[in-house]
Design goal:
Layout (H helix, E strand, L loop, with lengths): L10 E4 L2 E5 L6 E6 L4 E4 L5 H15 L5 E3 L5 H4 L9 E5 L2 H7 L1 H10 L4 H9 L6 E3 L2 E7 L2 E7 L9 E5 L5 E9 L15 H12 L4 E6 L5 H15 L3
Parallel strand pairs: 4-5, 5-6, 6-7, 11-12
Antiparallel strand pairs: 1-2, 2-3, 3-4, 8-9, 9-10, 10-11
Helix pairs in contact: 4-5, 6-7
Length: about 240
């Protein structure tokens, strides 16, 4: 079904893929639609955002989201997951254990960043951890010849960074917060700076020179931007 992604505030990237920059924290979410399955990359920061994304996905595509991939376990990327009941949730290995024991820490982090207490409590009370954990790489068949690659390329920005590669012309690489365009890359307490440049090297190996790289925050970038950010991070943290 040919629909206007732009009508819903989405940017069409090609090969059944589009993304949206959410308000407040400017976190990116992405949809990848095959003939049989639909993958959502990240779910927003609240249950209300999750419900809105679910409604938009169904309006855009005429069917429900079948898979979710979580880029990393930070509140602005995972707290909408409970809005997608019955959906298979994927994350980098270790993400499930972290979310299962860290709901209160996520809630506190959301509150520190200005989320209302009711939203933070509702989302963390309903927190969903991924049942499908990716160690290394995993291929997800969405039908119609579209096979996307889920790649555990971290640690880097967090201890559990999962990227998604969508084949096509151009290739699309969903980077999560390993790449940020609208501000400097953020290194919180769970960042692993010594491995971050290597994670970006892996993204570049996966996508190549002509890919579109979709950051966790900000505008879509090219390989040169990712390489420059890799070098800046290596210099910042004293990593070769």
């Amino acid at each position: 079904m040919d629909v206007s992604w732009e009508e819903f505030g989405w940017e069409r990237l090609g090969n059944g893929t589009g993304r949206r920059r959410l308000p407040v924290w400017d976190a990116t979410v992405a949809l990848v639609a095959g003939a049989d399955g639909v993958l959502l990359y990240d779910t927003g920061s609240t249950l209300r955002e999750g419900v809105e994304l679910r409604t938009q996905a169904e309006a855009l595509l005429g069917r429900r989201v079948t898979h979710i991939a979580l880029s990393h376990p930070h509140f602005d990327h995972v707290l909408g997951t409970a809005a997608f009941s019955g959906t298979a949730v994927h994350g980098a290995v270790g993400t499930a254990e972290l979310l299962e024991r860290g709901a209160e820490e996520l809630r506190a982090d959301a509150l520190r960043h200005g989320m209302g207490e009711a939203d933070a409590t509702a989302a963390t009370d309903a927190l969903v951890a991924p049942r499908h954990q990716v160690s290394g790489e995993s291929t997800l068949d969405l039908g119609g010849g579209l096979q996307v690659l889920l790649a555990n390329v971290g640690p880097g920005h967090s201890g559990h960074d999962l990227a998604v590669l969508v084949p096509g012309s151009p290739v699309v690489v969903l980077c999560g917060d390993l790449v940020e365009e609208s501000g400097e890359p953020q290194a919180g307490r769970d960042a692993v700076p010594s491995h971050w440049p290597a994670a970006l090297d892996r993204l570049l190996e996966l996508g190549g020179e002509n890919a579109l790289y979709v950051p966790g925050h900000g505008a879509v970038v090219d390989a040169a931007f990712v390489r420059a950010q890799r070098d800046q991070l290596a210099s910042r943290f004293g990593v070769s």
